[in-house]
Amino acid sequence: MEGVNTVPRPIDLRAKVGRLQLDSPFMLASGILGNEHSLIMRAYRAGASAVVTKTVFNNARSGYTPPIYFENEYYALNAVGLPGTGVEHFSEELALVKEESKPLIASVGGLSPGEFSHVAQRVIDAGADAVELNLSCPHVAGTGSEIGSKPDLVKEVVFAVRDALPRALIFAKLTPNTHDIGELGKAAVEGGADGLTAVNTLRGTGFDVTLRAPLLSHGYGGVSGHALHPVALYAVQNLRTVLPDTPIIGVGGVYTIEDALEFFIAGADAVQIGTAIRNRGLQIFGELRADLTTRLRNARASDFLKFKEELRI
Amino acid sequence: MEGVNTVPRPIDLRAKVGRLQLDSPFMLASGILGNEHSLIMRAYRAGASAVVTKTVFNNARSGYTPPIYFENEYYALNAVGLPGTGVEHFSEELALVKEESKPLIASVGGLSPGEFSHVAQRVIDAGADAVELNLSCPHVAGTGSEIGSKPDLVKEVVFAVRDALPRALIFAKLTPNTHDIGELGKAAVEGGADGLTAVNTLRGTGFDVTLRAPLLSHGYGGVSGHALHPVALYAVQNLRTVLPDTPIIGVGGVYTIEDALEFFIAGADAVQIGTAIRNRGLQIFGELRADLTTRLRNARASDFLKFKEELRI
Amino acid sequence: MHLRSCNAPVPKEAPGQFVMAYLPRVGEVPLSVYYRRGRILKFLVEDYGGVSTKVVGVRPSSVLAVRGPYGHGFGLESGKSYMLVAGGSGAPPVINFIRTARKLARTRFTYILGARTADQLFLLKEVEKLGAQVFPATDDGSMGFAGNAVSLAESLLEDSHYDALYACGPESMLESARELAEKKKIRYEGSYVRDVRCAVGICGLCVMEGRGLLVCADGPVFTGEVLAAGIRK
Amino acid sequence: MHLRSCNAPVPKEAPGQFVMAYLPRVGEVPLSVYYRRGRILKFLVEDYGGVSTKVVGVRPSSVLAVRGPYGHGFGLESGKSYMLVAGGSGAPPVINFIRTARKLARTRFTYILGARTADQLFLLKEVEKLGAQVFPATDDGSMGFAGNAVSLAESLLEDSHYDALYACGPESMLESARELAEKKKIRYEGSYVRDVRCAVGICGLCVMEGRGLLVCADGPVFTGEVLAAGIRK
Ligand SMILES: Cc1cc2nc3c(=O)[nH]c(=O)nc-3n(C[C@H](O)[C@H](O)[C@H](O)COP(=O)(O)OP(=O)(O)OC[C@H]3O[C@@H](n4cnc5c(N)ncnc54)[C@H](O)[C@@H]3O)c2cc1C
Ligand SMILES: Cc1cc2nc3c(=O)[nH]c(=O)nc-3n(C[C@H](O)[C@H](O)[C@H](O)COP(=O)(O)OP(=O)(O)OC[C@H]3O[C@@H](n4cnc5c(N)ncnc54)[C@H](O)[C@@H]3O)c2cc1C
Ligand SMILES: Cc1cc2nc3c(=O)[nH]c(=O)nc-3n(C[C@H](O)[C@H](O)[C@H](O)COP(=O)(O)O)c2cc1C
Ligand SMILES: Cc1cc2nc3c(=O)[nH]c(=O)nc-3n(C[C@H](O)[C@H](O)[C@H](O)COP(=O)(O)O)c2cc1C
Ligand code: FES
Ligand code: FES
Which chains lie within 8 Å of chain B at 3 or more CB pairs, if any? Predict the structure, then answer.
């Protein structure tokens, strides 16, 4: 009855990425503020349903010196160089994260399968609820996409981590710098991954024409933001086709609820937000939750999981 | 002497891509209006220094039905599907192009090395000054990047064309959908290519959220325009590093003189313009010529070739 | 021949411009805007057997996406008399032209709609209501003038002066309309159809062969001079 | 300590905000704007031995790129009296603050510059000319107050009332300044230094540990309350 006060139907935003239970499909992407416990807690409080930490290695790494970041209206370019204090210290940070109800996912790096599995073990011991293997950073030698662009190495690394942690929740984060991301996804699943994160940044560069100098100290870096969006959507669409039942997290250029819905249409179970944090702040999480609620309400849906299934094409 | 009328120094915009002589470094990219003789002539008259035709196959192809093109402020997505009337008819079109002083480059497609070399022979016979082998279209099965992402196949195709046309000018157009474009470039050069064109579009997709439908009838397509720019720059930078002396044409997201200068800094000898034609029309060629002239004048340079060498880092 | 409407915040078009209408899982077709009011757009769609058939068959509840408007429409000046010739699915832009132009002072319209037979004539009353003089023409003589629309135009031009001849319909009709206008030394504009795919002047597939002109970006409406000059314009 | 200028259309900053200055083939450093007039920006750069050394060494003809301004500057209200404490390379934002704030009515400044020895004191005259009361402090007593800048601030606060204590300098100095302001129950703002790399609040490297605050995006100037509350703010 119009005009009569009606209690709006409760809307359930909960999402599921395999065994990972989320209070909404909006997670914080790796490398974005996830390097210290108080920042991680800030992201949770802003509404992120899960936090993926900065990628951690066994040893401390200093990363690259500035300039490490460039942005224009079309994309961001970064080459931070995976700085960090090493897994020993980082495990203490993880232990300081006091947020019982939301998953903490540690991004794990390594220069070898052994390092990946060792670091993964340490972060799980320190309380991480899952690991995301960074098989996709495009600008650090000997790791990331240098490993992650080869299906056999992907499988080997995932297998090593699975072997060390038979019951842990393992995600493999894939690179778009490949001709066939489906092959990389299949290799990860064969190695024992529970799910996939697609994608990390695309290799890219740029120059300051007046200075006649690269925009990044490293010479090149990774492209994220709007420019990455169509590429990431293709990756998820392709992975969903070749792996109909594998949990998939979409990441790349999510700024608005439409961007996120495109990922759900393509087949993602949840999305991560990175570069948009720069433009819209951490409050983007609250805004996306509100926007998704509105969308569900308008579609007369009460439950994100069902809504998402109906979006799929 | 200030105040006294001085004749501005003549500025020489001529560029060279190996044996290819150009009256400026600004060429028309393949697939952009290059499918018919009167359009090709229109591009020349607008100031393009060379035209690369639409990719031609041996047989007629109908391409995909609309929607084949989508654009937003960050990128364009296309999946035209390489329509064409086949090389027999297209050779007649080439013969109708009356422009003696500017190079006509035929983009050649094929489903096999044999088709590539056959089509290349036909278009050279019909008067093309060079061929550009499309080893990089990301959305047609059995050709383009399906061949072009594998170094051994790249080498085999280029070799077949070189074998059939020992003296022809051969460019190989490469895909950015790879982990190692340097390997692809090296394979093309080993096969006998005179130069490289980098890059074709990146695989990508997108969805209309209201319609719950892909933006392109083919389901996915190629990303061009601004979003491709940093990726194309990386490709040229990387190719220039591994192939210091190979002629390279940069293509991807050139809209302004700055975009072009970035390519020259990265190591390109000339650039092609595609998507920007949609936004700035064919008059972009005249504008870029004027802007480059101004840059040379401001830098007290009289000659593009020297200016470009000094830009390199 | 059906009437379809859809909601879309498409910027206002000039009569003769077109949009691309996308029916998911079916395809996208170029359509002239026949009528617009705010966010409501109406099209007249002829069933050609392909995507158009499906578009014709959409239920009012279906969702279509519309992008555009694209291209250039008919030239419009007040105080002129226009001879307008439409054939088949060429009617929509011409009717839209009359609807816009009739608000201008001292502007006169004669509208000729040609078809094979009387069954295929439509919306004559509606156009009359817009203030145009309306003449049907049928090949079989089942209604109005017996013969093609351009022949009728020619005989009307014998009797009185018109400033311009505008046409939309099959290319053979456009050709004879153009020749007629040239003979009579009056302005000619015609709306042409080609294989429009990108609609934004980038793919080249809608070229007016040999003329260096694009239907989607330079047209679909071309003047006689532009057609004659081609890329030399 | 050198003075550098460069041309750049950087939007106007508030005193305390910073820019990233990029010297090609050397690196990029965060620098507080010390002076601006139109497109001319001036910085005071201390030679720390790394990138800053190279920045200090640039010739006036060198080209630098500047992006920004970033972050949040010092709070500014008219009619207040400010106790400003600078140490080392902390002077630039404080001087820029005085330059802006002196245009406000009934606003008073006391400026304390601390250093190890008299040689390291600079620009005192310039700040005096801006209308501030200037007090140098040296650890070795070679000029002005013998002792650290915050001790001098404390003794000045005994004598007269100030509405706020603003500080920029080494973190140990900031800590004691904050404690002093708390004790005196006056407003505190301090400009903090961390490992600023992206400068836009995305990489997390400039975190104020345990507080969930970013120097580049939430600072570099923080109030006493924000520092105390951290992410609970
Ligand atoms: C600018 C513009 C505006 C248009 N406005 C309208 C409009 O308002 N109403 C309307 O009904 N139609 C309009 N059309 C035509 C319409 O867009 C399609 O061309 C038509 O609907 C055929 O589409 P289809 O997919 O059903 O046919 P198809 O499956 O493409 O073909 C069906 C049959 O028609 C023939 N055919 C199709 N297209 C062409 C062509 N371009 N030239 C020659 N033969 C062709 C085919 O050869 C085939 O025999 C317009 C076209 C253009 C370019
Ligand atoms: C917001 C902001 C504004 C600034 N404004 C100015 C300014 O106006 N003028 C100015 O001279 N400097 C300023 N700085 C400091 C400056 O940017 C650099 O930190 C300093 O120049 C050191 O750079 P470097 O590369 O020479 O030193 P590095 O090579 O990085 O290091 C040299 C030595 O200094 C130490 N060091 C460097 N940075 C830090 C740090 N952040 N914390 C602790 N120790 C460190 C190193 O450990 C090393 O021993 C500012 C910093 C920030 C964050
Ligand atoms: C500054 C920055 C740092 C990043 N660091 C990491 C990292 O440490 N590990 C990782 O797996 N991905 C890292 N990424 C990639 C992001 O997690 C994400 O995959 C990518 O940015 C695409 O998402 P977006 O377009 O939403 O930013 C980083 C991205 C940026 C912009
Ligand atoms: C509509 C369209 C059609 C294209 N067709 C072809 C083609 O037939 N052959 C080819 O090699 N590249 C084709 N391309 C790729 C372009 O030549 C170019 O490599 C790419 O668009 C990147 O350049 P841009 O960013 O300047 O558009 C096409 C691109 C577009 C947008
Ligand atoms: S339809 Fe593509 S250029 Fe006209
Ligand atoms: S420097 Fe990157 S978040 Fe502050």
Answer: A, C
Looking at residue B252, its pLDDT comes to 98
Nearest chain A residue to B74, by CA: A74
Ligand 1 closest atom vs CA C1: 11
* Cβ neighbours of A76 in B, within 8 Å: none
Chain C residue closest in CA terms to B214: C24
Query: What is the average per-residue pLDDT within D35-40?
Result: 79
- D145-150 CB contacts, 8 Å cutoff, 24+ apart: D145/D112, D148/D114, D148/D173, D148/D176, D149/D85, D149/D86, D149/D87, D149/D112, D149/D113, D149/D114, D149/D173, D150/D85, D150/D114, D150/D176, D150/D177, D150/D180
| Residues A38, D24: C-beta atoms closer than 8 Å | no
Residue B110 is given by DSSP the state -
Q: What is the pLDDT of residues B60-108, one digit of tens each?
A: 999 999 999 999 999 999 999 999 999 999 999 999 998 778 999 999 9
A68 chain-D contacts, CB cut-off 8 A: 197-198, 203
Nearest partner of B237 among C217, A296, D9, A215, judged by Cα: A215
Quick check: B230 and A77 CB within 8 A? yes
Give residue A179 CA to ligand 4 midpoint distance, Å: 18
Report how far residue B276's alpha carbon sits from residue B270's, in angstroms, rounded to the nearest whole number: 16
Q: Do B145 and A205 touch (CB under 8 A)?
A: no
Among residues A71, A278, A63, A224, the alpha carbon closest in space to that of D200 is found at A278
Q: Are strands D213-214 and D207-208 parallel, antiparallel or unpaired?
A: antiparallel
What gap in Å lies between CA B176 and CA B135, rounded to an integer? 11
> Of B45, B68, B213, which is closest to C231 when you measure between CB atoms?
B45
Give B-chain residues touching C24 at CB under 8 angstroms. Answer: 208, 211-213
Q: Are the C-beta atoms of D32 and D92 separated by less than 8 Å?
A: yes
What would the pLDDT profile of A221-256 be if each residue is shown by its tens digit?
999 999 999 999 999 999 999 999 999 999 999 999
Convert the pLDDT of each residue in A30-43 to its tens digit: 999 999 999 999 99
Q: Please name the member of A38, A80, A211 whose beta carbon is closest to the beta carbon of D197.
A: A80
Q: What letter does residue D67 receive in the DSSP assignment? A: E
Q: Is the pLDDT of residue B27 over 50?
A: yes
Contact A248, A268 (CB under 8 A): yes
Contact between residue B81 and residue B140 where contact means Cβ atoms under 8 Å apart? yes
Instruction: Residue B201: count other Cβ atoms within 10 Å of its Cβ.
Output: 34
In b/e form, how buried is each residue of D85-109, taking b as 16+ CB within 10 angstroms?
bbbbbbbbbbbbbbbbbeeeeebbb
User: If you count residue pairs, one on B and one on C, with CB atoms under 8 Å apart, how many are there?
Assistant: 99
Q: Are strands B130-134 and B170-174 parallel, antiparallel or unpaired?
A: parallel
Closest B-chain CA to C63: B211
Please give the model's pTM, rounded to 2 decimal places.
0.95
DSSP labels, B241-290? HH-TTS-EEEES---SHHHHHHHHHHT-SEEEE-THHHHH-TTHHHHHHH
Q: Name every residue whose Cβ is closer than 8 Å to that of residue D115 and which is 6 or more positions away in sequence.
A: D87, D88, D121, D136, D137, D138, D139
What are the tokens at D143?
């000029």
D near C: at least 3 beta-carbon pairs less than 8 Å apart: no
- Which tokens belong to B298? 């401001």
Contact A33/D at CB under 8 A: yes
Q: Within an 8 Å CB–CB cutoff, is residue A98 touching chain D?
A: no
Does residue B215's CB lie within 6 angstroms of at least one atom of ligand 4?
no
DSSP category for residue B231: H
Long-range contacts of A112-116 (CB under 8 A, 24+ apart): A113/A156, A113/A157, A113/A159, A113/A160, A113/A161, A114/A160, A115/A57, A115/A58, A116/A157, A116/A160, A116/A161
Task: Specify the DSSP class assigned to residue A175.
Answer: P
The pLDDT > 90 percentage for chain D reads 67
